[in-house]
Amino acid sequence: MSDAPLILWFRRDLRLGDHPMLAAAVATGRPLVPMFILDPETEAIGAAAKWRLGLSVAAQAAALAKIGLRLTLRRGPALEVLQALVAETEADGVWWSRLYDPEAVARDTGVKAALKALGVDARSFAGHLTQEPWSVQTLQGGFYRVFTPFWKTMRDMAVSAPDPAPTRARGMEVWPTSEPLQAWNLGAAMHRGAAVVAWHQTVGEDAARARLAAFLDGPLDQYGTTRDLPGVAGTSRLSENLTYGEIGIREVWHAALRARDEGSAGAEGFLRELGWRAFSYHLIHHTPTISHQNWREGWDDFPWRGDTPDAERWRRGMTGEPFVDAAMREMYVTGTMHNRARMIAASYLTKHLMTHWRVGLDWFADCLTDWDPAANAMGWQWVAGCGPDAAPYFRVFNPAGQADRFDPDQHYRRRFLAEGQANPGPDAVGFFDAVPRSWGLRPGQPYPAPVIDLADGRQRALFAYAARKA
């Protein structure tokens, strides 16, 4: 067996435990060269996600140092960087964990082919999902287009136990040179917003595991009733950590299974939500155009509007609809948005304002610290009606009705809307500190009038949907 070094290319798998690629590499006993590449595909992600990724990379570098490894940072096209490092270290293998969005697949396919042509052991591993997207099949051997039958198949499939984190690994006697993370300035596009959002981030594997433990010990039992209440701490908030791979999905899955077996009433519902994450990757693998084109046929002529002043008011959290505006402001202050609020904000943009879902998809991609390419694409198309929803036509969420139902005490709206409050809280005020100064927003200004009457907006949307269906 070779004793040449192995290069471990980390991407969205920034952890030590529940890590099939890392566990297999440590088991070889060979010298390991962990690396992270700031390639064009990574540079292209949104401002908030790129800033948050930098925090995760720093945490992973510290974690690797504790087991005797040093994370090498390089900037440039992935293949060029890897070829150069292979030559420098005389490594004969490059390993990585699989990703499934179209841009990553195209990059990784080219990298693997080129490295193999040079005689390098280029190998990819599972680890981002409990099941590979192609392994969940219909009885006819095809893929699922609707979630419920997908879930009925997936939930009974075996999930292997997570690998423990290594306590020691063999490194290099002489480490390759590394670029300083600070020189990449990954938070440049965040401007002053970074200082506000930073308070709400939970970074790294240890913090992610503590977050999971706190959820299992409390909110999980009531998950079925509280997960839709944005003013209540009723969700796991693990999306931030899962998107960067700071915690393994198998670890989360098995923890939820144990809780279910121990009688937790909310565990099955939580597992189902993990199933939605898997379904989004199932779809983006089998239908990669979901990331930028209408998923359903017959929607290309739908009369969505492009970017408009109405959409700009939506972006700024100034629509005059308190639930929608609170949702948008939550994103600017915390970097994330409650799932119920995401549906309401997305429905309002695509249906009441008749704006193309890609306008919202791109804005979320730029502003969410928990941005996930598959979940973002599926979520926007599901709400807009052109995606994998069994009943899209008549689903037009009423923001006022949703607020009465899911925020009856107005806790969520008061938390993020400063206007009209004598003493608004830090998150309500933080919104004005986070957004661009060019927007000219201030806490004491009057709350805006609604962009559109909700009943009129609903009727306009239903008429357009009915016309398309006819």
Characterise the protein shown here.
It is a single chain. Strand 4 (93-97), helix 5 and strand 5 form a beta-alpha-beta unit. This protein folds into 3 domains: 1-127, Rossmann fold; 129-158 and 194-286, Serine Threonine Protein Phosphatase 5, Tetratricopeptide repeat (Alpha Horseshoe); 309-469, DNA Cyclobutane Dipyrimidine Photolyase, subunit A, domain 3 (Orthogonal Bundle). The protein is built from 22 helices and 5 strands. Strands 3-2-1-4-5 form a 5-stranded parallel beta sheet, sandwiched between helices. The mean pLDDT is 96. The protein has helices at 20-28, 40-43, 47-66, 78-89, 102-117, 147-154, 181-184, 193-197, 205-217, 223-226, 239-243, 249-261, 267-286, 309-315, 322-334, 339-352, 357-367, 373-384, 399-406, 411-416, 426-434, 454-469, and strands at 6-10, 32-38, 72-75, 93-97, 121-125. It has 470 residues and is mainly alpha-helical. 49% of the residues lie in helices and 6% in strands.
